[in-house]
């Protein structure tokens, strides 16, 4: 049951925040997850989003309460369909019904610009999910065409960085050989429909996996000597840019050099378990504040210096019902009461916890209830829960290459 807000935001403060203009000039995106039972009502979230200068939001569903609350704010939305709906969305009639019920009613007041169909599907190694992905995307796009919405709303899907077979050096980026055909068909769909290629990238995992070898400054955008790509001679002073350019190289390797790449998730936890190195408020502050500063400077990557960064920070709130290690529940820029999880350099406001019935914001989905994501991807990425370096994927280990000797890799049983 919804409760009334005992501490409403004052009208004067709300007015200030709505017209507060941060220093950044490039669009900042934020992920708005709702796997929690203590989050503010969506209307109280609007000034929080404004306070950090975010102009784009990615939802993990199409929550009608959120979409209504952000009407006429100018904030752009990516809404999502979970993996559990891919089989249904293959049916054109069901896809059209979903779009009519969950997208069309909110346009144009709420600026829904994209629908993300599925999340990190290809790295679940589930043949049925993989086979359903592109047909579901195509059906949703066809529905948009039929409803004459395809000029304002595109269709995409978000991928884990683990779809890469090679990621270091960035110029050698390549997709997993077993996924090349599938990825190629998806990218061809993007090119034909003008939709972005979404990737979830977390330098935090590389540091967590081997904090003694990975440079903390390199992953936190702090001053450091960086690395030089031996093939391109491009200099990288942070890991995220290297990851982004590895994706650019992978796309070029299959014949697509001009696809719009967006980072649909990246972030750093402010708290973790004893074995989760680096999960502190100070490191989270450095990562996210430095990242937002780079976005505001309109600074591109070494491989794409003239392209604006299209990045969605993970996440808006700490989410108390997420499974997995403590870090999974502590990626938020804000606590549920609206206070900052750590200093963000913007005005603080108070938003009472009123949305006690929320457990994922899934009221708009075709089913009456939505199961929580599996623990291995509870925040939209394949989590690393072991403190053993041997648990890291080949992709993650490749990112440690500049910091770990070849002998270390051989001892872990990996062959570069």
UniProtKB/TrEMBL annotation:
Pfam families: Glyco_hydro_17
Keyword Signal (UniProt): yes
Domain of life: Eukaryota
Signal sequence segment: 1-25
Keywords: Glycosidase, Hydrolase, Plant defense, Signal
Family classification: Belongs to the glycosyl hydrolase 17 family.
Name of protein: Glucan endo-1,3-beta-glucosidase 11
Species of the source: Solanum pennellii
Lineage: Eukaryota, Viridiplantae, Streptophyta, Embryophyta, Tracheophyta
């Amino acid at each position: 049951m919804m409760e009334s807000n005992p501490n409403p935001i004052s009208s004067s403060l709300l007015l200030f925040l709505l017209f507060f203009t941060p220093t950044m000039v490039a669009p900042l995106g934020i992920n708005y997850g709702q796997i929690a039972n203590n989050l503010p009502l969506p209307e109280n979230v609007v000034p929080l989003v404004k306070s950090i200068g975010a102009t784009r939001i990615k939802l993990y569903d199409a929550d009608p309460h959120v979409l209504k609350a952000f009407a006429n704010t100018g904030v752009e939305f990516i809404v999502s369909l979970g993996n559990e709906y891919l089989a249904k969305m293959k049916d054109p009639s069901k896809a059209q019904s979903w779009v009519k019920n969950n997208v069309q009613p909110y346009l144009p007041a709420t600026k829904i610009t994209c629908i993300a169909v599925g999340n990190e599907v290809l790295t679940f190694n589930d043949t049925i999910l993989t086979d359903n992905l592109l047909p579901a995307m195509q059906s949703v796009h066809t529905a948009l065409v039929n409803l004459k919405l395809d000029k304002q709303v595109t269709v995409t899907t978000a991928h884990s960085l683990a779809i890469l077979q090679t990621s270091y050096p960035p110029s050698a980026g390549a997709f997993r050989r077993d996924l090349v055909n599938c990825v190629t068909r998806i990218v061809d769909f993007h090119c034909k429909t003008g939709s972005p290629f979404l990737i979830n990238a977390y330098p935090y995992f590389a540091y967590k996996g081997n904090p003694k070898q990975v440079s903390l400054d390199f992953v936190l955008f702090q001053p450091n000597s960086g690395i030089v790509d031996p093939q391109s001679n491009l200099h990288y002073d942070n890991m995220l840019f290297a990851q982004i350019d590895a994706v650019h190289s992978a796309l070029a390797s299959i014949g697509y050099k001009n696809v719009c790449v967006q980072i649909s998730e990246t972030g750093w936890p402010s708290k973790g378990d004893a074995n989760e190195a680096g999960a502190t408020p100070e490191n989270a502050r450095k990562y996210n504040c430095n990242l937002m500063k780079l976005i505001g400077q309109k600074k591109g990557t070494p491989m794409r210096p003239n392209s604006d960064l299209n990045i969605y920070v993970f996440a808006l709130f700490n989410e108390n019902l997420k499974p997995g290690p403590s870090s999974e529940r502590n990626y938020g820029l804000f606590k549920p009461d609206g206070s900052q999880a750590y200093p963000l350099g913007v005005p603080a406001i108070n938003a009472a916890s009123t949305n006690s019935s929320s457990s994922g914001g899934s009221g708009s989905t075709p089913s009456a209830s939505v199961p929580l994501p599996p623990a291995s991807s509870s925040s939209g990425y394949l989590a690393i829960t072991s403190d053993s370096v041997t648990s890291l994927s080949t992709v993650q280990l490749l990112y440690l290459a500049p910091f770990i000797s070849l002998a270390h890799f051989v001892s872990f049983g990996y062959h570069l």
